[in-house]
Known about the structure:
Pfam families: DUF3443. This is DUF3443 domain-containing protein. Residues 31-116 are annotated as: Disordered. It comes from Paraburkholderia hospita. This protein folds into two domains: 8-41 and 70-79 and 111-314, no CATH class; 351-484, Beta Barrel (Cathepsin D, subunit A, domain 1). It is mainly beta. The radius of gyration is 20 Å and the shape is globular. The two termini are 22 Å apart. It has helices at 173-176, 178-181, 246-249, 258-261, 432-438; strands spanning 8-11, 14-17, 119-124, 137-144, 154-163, 167-172, 199-206, 209-222, 225-235, 253-254, 265-269, 288-293, 296-299, 321-326, 337-343, 359-361, 368-372, 375-381, 388-389, 397-398, 401-402, 408-415, 421-429, 447-448, 454-456, 464-469, 474-475, 478-479, 482-484. The strands form five sheets. It has a seven-stranded mixed β-sheet with strand order 23-22-17-18-25-19-24, with no helix packed on it. The protein is built from five helices and 29 strands.
Amino acid sequence: MKKLFSHCASSSPLRVVLLAASVALSACGGGGGDDNGSGQPVTNNAPVKPGGTAVAPAGASAPSGASVPSGASAAQPASPPETASTPSAASTPAAVTPASETGTPGNNDTPPAPAAENIVPINVFSDYTDYRVVNMPYVSVTFCVPGKQGASQCATVDHMLLDTGSVGVRVIASALGGAFSSKLPSQTGASNDTTGKAAIAQCALFASGYTWGSTRGADVTIGKKTASGISVQVIGDSTYAAWVPNDCTSRGQSMNTVKDLGANGIVGIGHLAHDYPEAAQSPQVANYYYCPTPWSCTAASVPLDRQTANPVQAFATDNNGTIIRLPALPSMGQASVKGELVFGIGTRDNNALPARPTILVVGDRGDFTTSYKTRAMTSVIDSGSNGLFFPDASLPVQNYWFAPAAVQSLSATAFSNPGDVQSTIPFSIANASTLFDLGYAAHDNLGAPISSMFLWGLPFFYGRDVYTALSGMQAGAQKGPYVAF
């Protein structure tokens, strides 16, 4: 949603969602660090009760460009730690797109039956009624009140963005249903909350914007796998929708509605078990908050077991990583694509590593080095970003996307972290405007410029099995974190 992610670039009349990952470095809520924590603390200022006008949602307007903002880049740390500021004023809730407007798969897009209990279908399609998205891999997720399984205690949400570039399950309140959302118990117990009773909310930062909402406990089921009693973020929770901290709103545009996000939520299956281990050590800017009231929240230090969690590591089995399998595409793309999400690496016959895989050892946030045209830069492989994003001034740009007159055959070299050359990866870049005119949902040659990193988004995944091994978990012959293909 990576790294997560309004992240909306437009090419009229097509709405294209740019999900630039939040994997990164010091301030992205969907990323995280090592379990010892390394972020810098902030000074807590208790905010005052707001007044004035409400925070406006980002809506469907296009940003100034497709480039990832330098302040929240997957390649660069965000702006230095600072004192948590007084929240922006608000008096009425921000608008939320109703779940009924998100669309449902047509008969021809019915997901295939899972082949095994550790496999669930992935669908890449564009079936929203009033805009289109490209390269958005969706899965379905069932949320239940912890320990409950009755029909009134569970809700299934489709169109959940599958994101290897972030960590944690985040669902938009309107898609979950307001009445059901309130049944999920609020997370409490921030380390610096002297009462231990205030609800915990989160500002999750992504390269393209932020999500804001409460954190709640839920049993999360994907296919036949259940993560019991984990913390999830309820985006745009009506209790908190009218108030967002200034530290959060200053980091980009809101992605608190289905239309802004291009999905009903995010399933972050990156390398970490919890989304921001540094916040377990000390409060971080624009991250977790404890809220005695919905209009009075303070930057919080949150124990790992209360943080938004990677559902995969919480499974009882097949919990050391994932595989995304998507088919190769024709040169002009495809109207829709069906693939598979496989849980576990080397845990059973259907998820073994190939005989001679390319293995990139990565940091806990998935970072490694890519060299492109003699320039080495930080890089990630991220299913939640819908293009290949990299700097190349020689490629013409139209409506924020690369638009060369002829298809460009290019390559870049990936280096394992730390240092050995692993693979030279060929790729191509086509004219994005030409591709968008086709109205297809899947393209493997869609790209856009960013200034300082190489982001291997969903186009990299087509025609490959891409393995994401979790940090500290044995996955085949070695422990994660690593990416293999």
